[in-house]
Amino acid sequence: MLQVKAVASNVRALDRARLAACSVDSDWPAAEGVVLLLQTLADAGSIRSLENQQGREVALYRGDRFVGVLAHRRSSTSEYGEVPSGVGPGASCELDLLAHGGVVGRGLSIPPAHAAGGFTRVRVLGALAQQGRALRLRDLCGCPPEPGPDAPPRRRQPAVPTLLVCGSAAEVGKTTTCAALIRALKRRGLVVGAAKLTGTGRLRDILAMRDAGADHALDFPELGLATTYTAAQPVLEAAREILGRLDASGCQVVVAELGGDIIEANADALLADPRIAGRCRAIVHVAGDVLGILGAAALYRRFGLRQPIQPTLPKGRNPLGTVERLREFGWDALDALDAAACDAYVERLLAVGVSG
Q1: pLDDT in tens, the chain (356 residues)
Q2: What is the dihedral of CA 301, 305, 306, 311, to 10 degrees?
Q3: Which of 84, 93, 215, 286 has the greatest count of CB atoms below 10 A from its CB?
């Protein structure tokens, strides 16, 4: 069996038995989703830990070997990089760690707060392979094959009413808000599904939703996407599949988070998708300031969404000042850290039939 310190959380479908059956192919393709054996090259860098398959942060040191995945990450708040093009395969190739979940690529930019040590450099030792073929994340996930032109249409479950939790940036409190809403819905005795539909794929977000009481929780790495910084169509397909599985699980309501902001990582494509918009009963918007709320409201309307929008109090801001400014524009803010306020919001949603 390959000796590795950790398997990254974005490769969560790779179990020990599958890992033991893998060989290492130095003739790996520089293609999105390829699962790689990697080795850390230094003790310094912008990302010094790896989230493993159990959601634990594992410290990385020079010489550590781990399993990660090749993918894009075009974040406006964190590391930015892409799958390299025109790079010849080989064990001597060096790349950069772009996310704690094990995403690697050619780093292009680091935000100033992370830039002092530069990117965390890794050496590609090869791709994990079986039967002479490099594995891709999709191979590990049991994804249904693409239907042929003559295949009968798949029977769809009725769509479960869905709350979309979106934001104006990463790290503004979207997952915390999801957890608060899940708790409020569970206090009403509902069967709650949870999803992360866009972003970089941190397992910690799904674990937080499960800890809050979600009966079922899914995200896109479980559908073969390392990140949603890719073409729009695979992201739409993965989101529809995630929501379809939650529909079939017996959930009465779904709380779905879009990571990052609403104009990156294909969040805008999902918001403009009629099938996803059609199941959405309300949008909870989490922003860093009042302008982030007002600007987002205009974008939702531009995407064609007419559902009610509920802004939350921006974390770290003066709550009274925020409330007064929003009221000038006809908005009331939800304090997602106040259980009673979340209960009242959920009660209003239930009164108009959010749980179907």
Answers
A1: 689 999 999 999 999 999 999 999 988 889 999 999 999 999 989 999 999 999 999 999 999 999 999 999 999 899 999 999 866 555 468 999 999 999 999 999 999 988 888 999 999 999 999 998 999 999 998 655 555 555 555 566 789 999 999 999 999 999 999 999 999 999 999 999 999 999 999 999 999 999 999 999 999 999 999 999 999 999 999 999 999 999 999 999 999 999 999 999 999 999 999 999 999 999 999 999 999 999 999 999 999 999 999 999 999 899 999 999 999 999 999 999 999 999 999 999 998 877 55
A2: -70
A3: 286
List the domain range (segments joined by +) for residue 62: 6-140
Buried b / exposed e over 41-53, threshold 16 CB at 10 Å, is beeebbbbebbbb
Domain final residue, candidates 93, 109, 140: 140
Using alpha carbons, select from 92, 142, 81, 146 the residue that is nearest to residue 114: 81
CATH code of 333's domain: 3.40.50.300
What lies within 8 Å, CB to CB, of 107 at 6+ separation is: 79, 80, 81, 95, 96, 98, 119
Burial (0-12, 13-18, 19+ Cβ within 10 Å), 156: exposed
The total domain count for the chain is: 2
Q: Token digits for 167?
A: 């934001």
Structure tokens at 63: 């010489």
DSSP letter assigned to residue 230: S
Residues 6+ apart with CB under 8 A from 236: 266, 269, 270, 273, 276
The pair of three-digit structure tokens given for residue 101, joined into one six-digit string: 């979940």
Question: What CA–CA distance (Å, rounded) separates 200 from 78?
Answer: 10
- Give the phi and the psi of residue 160 in degrees, each rounded to 5: -85, 135
47 in any annotated domain: yes
- Per the listing, tokens 């950069």 go with 96
